[in-house]
Amino acid sequence: MKKSDLLEPIAGNGLLHRRLFLKSSVAAMGAAGLQFITAKVATAAPLEVPAWMQIPGTGMSGYGARSRHEEHIQRSFGSLPGTVGVGSSKTPLEHLEGIITPGALHFERHHNGIPDIAPLEHQLLIHGLVDRPLTFDLESLTRYPLVSHIHFLECSGNSGANNAPKPPQLPASSIHGLVSCSEWTGVPLAVLLDEAGVQSEGSWILAEGSDAAAMSRSIPMAKVRDDAIVAIYQNGEHLRPANGYPMRLFLPGWEGNMSVKWLRRIQVTSGPTMTKDETSKYSDLMPDGRSKLFTFPMEVKSLITSPSGTNAMQGTGLYQVSGIAWSGLGRIRRVEVSADDGRTWAEAALTDPVLPRAFTRFRLPWRWDGGPAVLQSRAIDETGAVQPTRTVLLGERGANYRYHYNAIQSWAVSETGEVSNVYS
Amino acid sequence: MSIVSRIMWIYIALLACPAFAQEGPELGVAVTADQIASWAISVQPDGTGLPAGSGNAAAGAEVYVMKCLACHGPEGAGGLNDWLVGGHGTISSDTPVRTIGSYWPYATTVFDYIRRAMPLTQPQSLSNDETYAVTAYLLELNGIIDEGDVMDAETVPNVEMPNAGNFIWVYSEK
To answer: Across the interface, do A293 and B32 touch by the CB < 8 Å criterion?
Structure first.
């Protein structure tokens, strides 16, 4: 019997023949191998009682830390030359499971570093086209009705590395890690605006941060009234400094930079302010030389995180393909997975909860037979929007669009088990 | 219907959802226009928010050499950070160079951004006159204003930026 025959499933769910191990061992090692296996069984030691059961463990702590064996799981980060805080760090998506990103691994994008804000001195000013200009502090905001929602946050420049003519050979996180998902708790901004009394011509706001870039973006009032919050907590604890402590704007589903961190000022206006970061940056240049402004929602997207770029397969056999899908326009309705470069697709299982504008974890069993494969995932959201191929996306937008890259990611698996980034 | 237009229609439909209907404890503290002035640093395209003061390109060149050149290069190009000058005619090419002159749609944004965020190591340290002067210098280097033109609250909003007509609003206000 050939090795490839043994790898055929003999029952449902990919069960493989019991003789597989012995037979392939014989093929690899010959008769000596058999003797080795016999000897190994004969001298197998009893399971040892581990050392950590034989002494008391360490004590409690005021603020927990992860296992020291996991400390190598890190964000990758970089800053503009000559600076330390003008750049980004990326969530190590391929090392995470489920849908919640730990606060310490949430991606960062700062425009001039993380301010060291004294919470008792921080104020949020609401002014402009309002009847009563007001300030709020952290203590007063915690007395307002709080709401909590699980939402992804994605930098609109995420995955831009795949605009390059040749596919970058990087881990999934280095290409796609400017996205994370948290539970955000805060005060609906509309409640604060109503207290200030928005005047009839107040159709936009300017949101400004208390950082050294005074990061600022214009947001239409309709979005503010729909679901904008002034977030105070992330995953149950106060925001981290890198995520806007002590308060940030949060706009579910929209470009990450609009959820202005370290929020200090809301000015109600009659139109967009046309700040640097909504005109010269975060605008979408098309091949004909025109640019789109205010492409706010992050569109439907998915990504296989395991296996993924630079991984090495651990031999043939059964694997679980696992990944994340999200859409700034609502819930994920369906995720399909292909192992043959998009020729055939199988529907993946969506893991509860499936929430609007949040990561949705998808999984699918896969038996790798050692041959070349190209793994892809394709997400469809509840509006019916389908994640496009890279060819279609770049065909519509050109290569200088820069932002809002949401094309299907293709991971090639070679016969030797190396996983690489390919353009399908 | 393209994906983009379908998404926009769905988005417009979502806007019709009811707004929050919640009450707060009304803990906001009233502030006066005088108290707000030092924080109100944003400038609208019509010039609203521009302060008193003025400057021209010659004065701006002096500030630029001291405060800007190290990152942005001599005369606004060739530095490690964003190029501010040049790139004219490249925007619809395969290798667009997005500078103030070739790309930015509003001159008010130049003043606003310098005042709020530059120089990177000392943001909000320039005087209003210095900010107007650097704005004038960068516009003059790009051939958008003349050497002797003075930039102030009246003139900045009236500067015609070469690429202003090439921006499309995707978000629609119903």
So the answer is: no
Query: Is B3 within a domain?
Result: no
Q: Total domain count for chain B?
A: 1
Most A CBs within 10 A among B4, B6, B20, B50, hence the mutation to make, goes to B20
CA distance B115 to chain A (A): 10
Q: Which of A218, A250, A220 is nearest to A235 (CA)?
A: A250
- Is-contact A167 A421, C-beta < 8 A? yes
Reported ipTM: the value is: 0.88
d(CA A127, CA A124): 10
CA distance to partner chain A, nearest, from residue B58 (Å): 24
Residues from chain B contacting residue A220 (CB–CB below 8 Å):
171, 173
Apex A168 CA angle, A165 and A172, nearest 5: 135
Strands A229-234 and A291-293 turn out to be: unpaired
Instruction: Give pLDDT tens digits for B94-111.
Output: 999 999 999 999 999 999
**Mean pLDDT score of chain B, rounded to an integer?**
90
Q: State the architecture of A107-160+182-282 in CATH terms.
A: Alpha-Beta Complex (3.90)
Q: Are B67 and B119 in contact (CB under 8 A)?
A: yes
B151 part of a folded domain: yes
Assess if residue B11 is contained within a domain: no
- Statement: residue A202 has pLDDT above 60: yes
Our CA-based measurement puts residue A329 at a distance from the nearest CA of chain B, in whole angstroms, of: 7
A274 contacts B45? CB cut-off 8 A: yes
Assess if residue B5 is contained within a domain: no
Residues of chain B positioned with their CB less than 8 A from the CB of A82: 71, 80
Task: Determine the distance in angstroms separating the CA of B112 from the nearest CA of chain A, rounded to an integer.
Answer: 7
Strand runs (DSSP E) across B23-147, as ranges? 29-30, 54-55
The enclosing domain of B109 has a CATH number of: 1.10.760.10
Question: How far apart are the C-alpha atoms of A252 and A219, rounded to whole Å?
Answer: 12
Please give the pLDDT value at position B7.
54
Q: Cβ neighbours of residue B49 under 8 Å, at least 6 residues apart? A: B40, B41, B42, B43, B112
CATH number of A301-422: 2.60.40.650
Partners of B98 on chain A (C-beta within 8 Å) are 280, 285
pLDDT in tens, A348-403: 999 999 999 999 999 999 999 999 999 999 999 999 999 999 999 999 999 899 99
- For A157-193, the DSSP string reads TTTGGGGSSS-----HHHHH-SEEEEEEEEEEHHHHH
User: Which domain, by its residues, includes B139?
Assistant: 33-166
* B133-173 per-position pLDDT tens digit: 999 999 999 999 999 999 999 999 999 999 999 999 999 76
Task: Nearest by CB to B104, from A132, A216, A280: name it.
Answer: A280
How many angstroms separate the CA atoms of B29 and B39, rounded? 16
Say yes or no for a CB contact (<8 Å) between A125 and B39.
yes
The predicted structure's pLDDT at residue B5: 56
Average pLDDT of the residues in A32-56: 70
Of chain A, the percentage scoring pLDDT greater than 90 comes to: 88
CA B79 to CA B70: how far, in whole Å? 7
Query: How many pairs of residues across A and B have Cβ atoms under 8 Å apart?
Result: 183
